Amino acid sequence: MKKIHLRGVAVLLCLVLAFSTFTAGAADVSYGPYDYDAFTIEDQLSEPIKSASMSDFEKSFYNFLNKIGMGLLRIVSALYPNPSDWESLDSYNGENFLPGRETYATEAAEGNQWYAGYASRSIVPDDFEPGKYYIGRDLTNRLAQGVNDDNRVRVVALDDNSGEGLVIFAVVDSLGVTSADTRAIRAEVVQWAQTQGIRIAALNLSVTHSHSALDTQGVATESIYRILTASFKNLLDIGENDPRLANANAFKQSYLATTVEAVKEAVLDLRPGDLYYAQVDGSDYIKDKRGLIAPEDIPPIASLKFVPADGSEGIYMADISCHPTSFSASHGLLSSDYIYYMEQRIQEKTGYNFLFIQGASGQLSRMGLNVDEEQLPEEERLGATTRYSGRVFADLILAADDGSMEKLEPVLNAKYTEYTFTPENDILVLAVKAGLVNNAVYTTDDPMKPVILMEEGYVELGGRVGFGIVPVELYPEVFYGSEIIGDLSWDGTAWEYDAMTAMAPEGVDLYAMPLSNDSLGYCVLDNNYAFFGHIIGDEIADEVLSLGEHTASTVVTHFAELMEQCK
Fold it and tell me: Within this chain, do residues 398 and 430 fall inside the same structural domain, yes or no?
């Protein structure tokens, strides 16, 4: 029993060390006017990160800390008892993995026609009351005291009438989702679809990545309690009905059930129509907090518009690489951040529905969109920056719909792959063992090396717009190429992989859809993986919440192999 206590304390120390840095980062300090009509851009570009000019001695010191930290995590992870429901990798049979469509089409066949369906449902429980449910931000066990604006799941179902099956995008207002929950949703939807004679080729569960939404993963719910008690529960195989976690477990089941019903609703809403596309420049409003990516290299925004043939409500979709962190979790109120106000603005102006896709954000955040709330009446101060940001981004999308949007041919492609990865940083494995998240982890013959499943995908619309679907939080330079940050490197070597955007078929504009079907931490360039060097030196904690140094090269390599199927 004493050994179990020691294990629990050790894990607590490791996790608190890791997650306590999660909130560190460069803060926005300058403000812009709130009067929309009088809005002007302010120069809010950050100073380059310190590690760009660190001495060799400083880097050697941080590398020494890296080895100690990684070694400690690996030892504690090995000592910590596994949950009883972990299965051997040998027993995995691909259950609830959807490989996509069988063929890759390069032109529309006779009878092809765009169909799209939409649904949106609140995931806030009907019995919500102050202090009952948790905000998914960090280990602070932050109980939601109210609702500033709704948390929702929004779903778009797409088809081209080719008979190859539907492609579904479900996006939740939350920080992240897990592979176990994704596959549970797929299991129910696919089983239902079969009874309806409907073929599902792909079902993607992704997030807006709001930092002030309900905790859909579990990491921010009674975290310290879970860390201290999980070792006992794992050894004794107890804890399924822990009364202290009753509300959290009830919310998890409610959120999953709501998502399933929203997906069904979107599928049944399928209507014929036309699909349009425009690329939007949002660089005036987005900056790299590290000060590394120049304005001209900020990822573009993808704007898609579905216009139903019957004149009913259409759908706007937007892929934006900008963190929705304008509404702080410290307010204690639920918020989907600027996404809610984007949707509100679009609905007010057009009557259309809206789906937000988070792009390759890394450290990309809003620029020039802060509001000097002290100049506003007290009743307007809370969330003023958030409302303003949503309005600006919505107007960018609407401005692109000036009659020049490109009409897309009704050709839909979808391909997926899965593979195993052995985490080099054991923080995720420890989080699963401690019951903080329910990502799927599998045992192998080597007890020191459990593995996780990685799932990547590619969806292409009309031979013009593609989405790279990955389970990690992509840094822009991984997706768009290392050239956008110059020759920055932690270890002095060059990044020798092509940009993921360059892997798309000719003529296709590729956008990122990260944190899809799982949430496996940050994905930074291998040669700039500094761990403590960035945590302490730059106050950027992303590498703590990463699978390890070779995450990016692994993701890029498998995406390249997937894209070979499309050439």
Answer: no
